[in-house]
Amino acid sequence: MADRGASPLSLPDDWPEHPDPILALNRMGSFDWDLDAGVMQMDAQAHEIFDVRPDEYDDRPETLGMRVPPGEARRLDSAVSQALKSGQENYGVYFRIRRRDGSLRWTHTQGYIRRDASGRPHRIIGIVRDATQELRDSEGRREQALQESLRRQQTNVVQLTTAALAHARTVQDVIDVLKDTHGLTHLGATSLVMGLVEAGRIRLIAEGPAGSFVPGTELTRIDERYPMSEAVRTLSPRFIESPEEFAERYPELWRGITGLKITSAAYLPLIVQARPIGAMGLLYSDRRGFSAEERNILVALGSSISQSLQRAMFYEQEMDLAQGLQQAMLPRTIPSVHGADLAVRYRAASFGGSFGRDIGGDWYDLIPLPGGSPTGGGRVGAVIGDVQGHDTHAAAVMGQLRIVLRAYAAEGHPPATVMARASVFLHELDTDRSATCLYAEVDLSTGVVQVVRAGHLDPMVRRADGSCRRVSVPGGLPLGLSAEFGGLDYPVGTIELEPGDTLVLCTDGLVEQPGADLDDGVETLAALIAVGPDDVRDLADRLIDVAEERRGDDDVALLLLRRREPDGPRSGGRLKQLVPPGDPQALSDTRSMIRTAAGAWGARDRADEIELVADEMITNVLMHTEGSAAVILSVLDGTERRLRVEVEDSSSALPRRREAGESGVSGRGLLLVETLTDLWGVEARGGGKCVWSEFVVPKDPGTD
Fold first, then answer.
1. Which residues lie closer than 8 Å to 636 by C-beta, 6 or more apart?
2. DSSP labels for 185-223?
3. 579 near 586, Cβ under 8 Å?
4. Facing residues of 496 across strands?
5. ∠ CA(177), CA(181), CA(185), 5° rounding?
């Protein structure tokens, strides 16, 4: 054994000729080796160390061969020879000697080499000592250092595991952390099992490695003879320190795991607030027994796992409740609508944070409306909205708001009224939440879409040729705020959907991206829709997949409506539009709606006349009254099929015919109405009146 750092022998000039007493006090013997004569004299202490009697030693080094085993002698000779040849002044070597009783003793020698004037070695003066205790102490220190290192390693694994468990949200997350390569396997465990207490039984939720499941242990009673059952029943760990002990204490379980070569195991109760919630077992195949420190570390780890597991169980319970609430608030089914292909999707936010924050207030709805055509398509209200916040309260407000919007729309109120009433409802509700919303009333027989927007994103339209663009429509304040700030005016915009066109409504979770401008997000979405699948269901899946890939912190609601080709000759329905004074865009949208509806309802040849008459009737209201004009288009089926245009206002004054004169630019309105219509008239309605005109259209208009 090589010298382990012993200081070199350095003899002072006044070194005593007979240092035996000094050395003996230090349990050392001395020797004087004359290299030229081959004689090595040793004192009595050296004789004792080599366990030779004076009469057995003849001052020849070779005689000590009876005490120095051959392997040790070769190593000792090699060290001395190396020192003599290299010019060293001293050397030190650990070696073993064999005592009289056959036992081995560690010994250490250190020699000082004397050389002549030419540098040739001729004498070695040195000491020899019993190193057994020294090496025993050194081995003890090494063992202590090893244990300390192992303890630090185990403590480090506990700290790392505890830190990883802090991010575990679900029970499966906890299991994954424990089975991860940075988890409990660093403590040397071969297999991990875990069970949760449920109604007086323990249900196994994790076992490893794969294939180590023991039949009949998936669900066990707490009073059965299993180590996890005992740990739960007694609230104390069960340490099994040998295969023999395992087989004796738990024979049934042992028969099932014999193939795993288990040598010891630790089963820990998982306790929270003095109540057992489960148990965990660590099985080892390379160790026997557990020190007190190892037991303490495992118990501490079990406590940390218990807290994480309880937190995960609370989280899952909260999520089940929240998601149940979310699903209850959203429509359970979407009705089929004649003349349209539909797809709706919802994706919860992904926060990775506190309980219940994976839900929100986004919603969609589809409301069948009266009217429409049995062959060309029905009328439907499409809703998309977002209540402020991401919690169960937002979901509850969303559910109430969805219900009242559906009720107002189903009652037949025009889009602007639906939105205004919903805003008043939310304002009067006992909540501080506001909501954005878009309501689109779609007549699939004509393709006319009337849109009102309360602080929400504009709709998008994908044309049949695949192009997609954002459609800007006028809007009002978010729901709940408009009533507070006196802004209950929701202008109505008009969109025309041709057969094959798709209306896209979504919440901002699908558009917003961290660090990106909202307009850039809209353009990105439009490009994605343009290259997406033709089928609305496949397209909806693709858009939600993109939202999932982004892992955004906002929920997403999505509604797609694609107008189909009509199945047969188009019939008619009923459309209504409000034109406020001083709003040229509303007047333009109304003209567009009238022209589109007239063509769709079989009056294409008279579309210009119908638009001109309606425009005159609307203009008359805007010029001679102080309120808005409500325009209603409908089809009357009887002996003759007629398209009827009604314009309502709040004035009770009836229209009167005036003479325009040769150069007059006004006064010809009623003359124009009388000339172009087949029938017209005036009706008193409440505090106002209605001027109406009817146009005979073909009974069987055919398809466009």
1. 642, 643, 644, 694
2. GGGT-SEEEEEEEETTEEEEEEEESTT-PPTT-SEEETT
3. yes
4. 448
5. 90
Cβ proximity of 606 and 626 under 8 Å: no
Burial string for 492-508 (b: 16+ CB within 10 Å, else e) reads bbbbbbebebbbbbbbb
For residue 112, give the H/E element and its range: strand 104-115
Give the DSSP letter of residue 670.
H
Bridge-partner residues for 504, per DSSP?
A: 460, 560
The span from the CA of 550 to the CA of 357, in Å, is 17
Ordered DSSP codes for 541-581: HHHHHHHHHHT-SS-EEEEEEEEPPPSSS----EEEEEE-T
Phi, psi (5° rounding) for residue 314?
-60, -40
Would you call the peptide bond into 69 cis, given omega within 30 degrees of 0 as the criterion?
Answer: no
Phi, psi for 574 (deg, rounded to 5): -145, 130
At 487, which helix (H) or strand (E)?
A: none
pLDDT in tens, 460-506: 999 999 999 999 998 889 998 865 666 678 888 888 898 999 999 99
The residues that bridge with 91 in the sheet, in sequence order, are 111
The backbone torsions φ and ψ at residue 269, rounded to the nearest 5 degrees and listed phi first, read -75, 140
Report the alpha-carbon distance of residue 417 to residue 684 in Å, rounded. 22
Q: What angle do CA 82, 83, 85 make, to 5 degrees?
A: 65
- pTM score over 0.90: no
How many helices (H) and strands (E) in the chain?
17, 26
**DSSP symbol at 672:** H
Q: What angle do CA 96, 102, 105 make, to 5 degrees?
A: 25
DSSP-based helix, strand, coil % in the chain, nearest 5? 35, 30, 35
Kindly state the greatest CA–CA separation across the chain: 161
Provide DSSP, 77-89: HHHHHHHHHHT-S
Number of CB atoms found within 10 A of residue 541's CB: 16
- 10-residue averages of pLDDT along the chain (704 residues): 43 51 66 92 91 90 89 91 91 91 90 91 92 76 72 69 74 78 62 86 77 72 90 92 91 83 90 88 85 84 84 78 68 81 84 51 87 61 90 82 90 86 89 91 86 94 94 90 71 89 93 79 92 94 88 83 74 75 81 84 86 90 85 81 89 70 57 88 81 84 44
**Residue/partner pairs of 232-235 with CB below 8 Å, 24 or more apart:** 232/197, 232/202, 232/269, 232/276, 232/278, 232/279, 234/269, 235/269, 235/271, 235/274, 235/276
- 413 within 8 A of 630, measured Cβ to Cβ: no
Following DSSP, what letter does each residue of 337-384 receive, concatenated? -TTEEEEEEEE----SSSTTTT--EEEEEEEEEEEEETTTEEEEEEEE
> SS3 for 387-430, per residue?
ECCCCHHHHHHHHHHHHHHHHHHHCCCCHHHHHHHHHHHHHHCC
